[in-house]
Write a structure and sequence with these properties.
Layout lengths: L4 H12 L5 H21 L3 H12 L4 H8 L3 H18 L6 H6 L6
């Protein structure tokens, strides 16, 4: 289920008019982050999505995922790597500027 906090905050911001406090704009922008992350994960191919959810969200070990999916551990690792890379690209604008520079992106 998608978070709805962004919709409520957006309505509050619009109701306050153009002179609303800047903090509401900051909260509104951050409220869309969970929805963006949810959509980016949902857009992954099934195998990558399963690996990312089981490992990075549920905390399962590579071996546990391999046993459940009946695939080699190396396949789990490669699906996870491809899924993480796709998420990194899809959500690059959400990363802090210094994190993008560290990851080899353009910091300016």
């Amino acid at each position: 289920m998608m978070p709805s906090g962004g919709v409520r905050l957006r309505a509050l911001t619009l109701a306050r008019g153009p002179g609303h406090p800047p903090i509401l704009s900051a909260i509104e922008q951050n409220a869309s982050r969970p929805a963006r992350i949810f959509c980016a994960i949902a857009a992954l191919p099934l195998e990558q999505r399963a690996a990312v959810i089981l490992r990075d969200i549920q905390g399962w070990s590579y071996e546990e995922i391999a046993a459940i999916a009946e695939i080699p551990v190396g396949t789990v690792r490669s699906r996870l790597a491809r899924g993480r890379e796709a998420l990194k690209v899809a959500l690059a604008d959400l990363a802090p500027v210094d994190a993008r520079a560290y990851a080899g992106g353009n910091a300016s």
